[in-house]
Design a protein that fits this description.
Elements lengths: L1 E6 L7 H15 L3 E6 L14 H4 L7 H6 L7 E7 L9 H15 L9 E7 L4 H13 L13 E3 L3 H6 L1 H26 L18
Parallel strand pairs: 1-2, 1-3, 3-4, 4-5
Helix pairs in contact: 1-7
Length: about 210
């Protein structure tokens, strides 16, 4: 089993990476592989809402979003990490995720349904819970169980060194990693026992206009 962790910070080895790396250490101890994918600092174009991904089976904007889209099926779980910028996610991360999740849903490239996901954030001080809520919505709209720790998944500090001094935050990253691994193992055991998920229902779309 393998977990994809997306580092949405402009700083490749900064506070967000430090938190993700603590989760990675725990996953390894639990026998789960992981990979940290850094989205980089190059500009990311926003979704055009053109719907072309349904026909092309990829995003019409052919960049790193499509490259990651091709590999989503290689993973059993997903963790998104972001710093808090203006009480929200990092600026480059949201258009990246908008296009990744939308193109995946429209193209049928991979089946994320019932695969676990969760968001973790790093901050100097505030805006953490709003950012966690924002990021977890990507999982919830795909029927993906959201895994929790024993507190909201955040760490505090202005540098990686300060983050490592956030004892409660770091402990929670470890607990989150254990909970994530436990869910993956339970899901694998269920599959081996012949417990099959219910059939996916066709979506009903309404706009409340009568």
């Amino acid at each position: 089993m393998k977990v994809l962790m997306i580092n949405g910070s402009p700083h490749k080895n900064g506070c967000t990476y430090t938190a993700l790396n603590e989760i990675a250490k725990t996953l390894i101890n639990e026998g789960i592989e992981s990979e940290i994918y850094y989205i980089g600092t190059e500009p990311v174009a926003p979704c055009r809402a053109c719907g072309a991904c349904g026909k092309l089976k990829k995003c019409v904007i052919d960049d790193k979003v499509n490259k990651l889209l091709e590999t989503l099926n290689d993973y059993d779980g997903y963790i998104i990490g972001s710093p808090v910028h203006y009480a929200s996610s990092a600026g480059g991360l949201i258009p990246f995720l908008d296009r990744l999740f939308y193109a995946n849903a429209r193209s049928g490239k991979s089946n994320l349904r019932l695969k676990p996901g969760t968001a973790i954030v790093s901050a100097r001080r505030a805006g953490t819970t709003a950012t966690i809520d924002q990021l977890n919505k990507y999982f919830q709209i795909q029927e993906m169980p959201v895994i929790s720790g024993r507190y909201w998944n955040m760490v505090h500090g202005c540098t990686p060194e300060e983050v490592l001094k956030d004892e409660e935050g770091i402990q929670n990253m470890h607990i989150l990693g254990k909970n994530f691994a436990y869910y993956l193992k339970c899901k694998e055991a269920a599959q081996k026992a012949g417990i099959i998920p219910h059939t996916k229902e066709e979506a009903v779309y309404t706009n409340f206009i009568r």
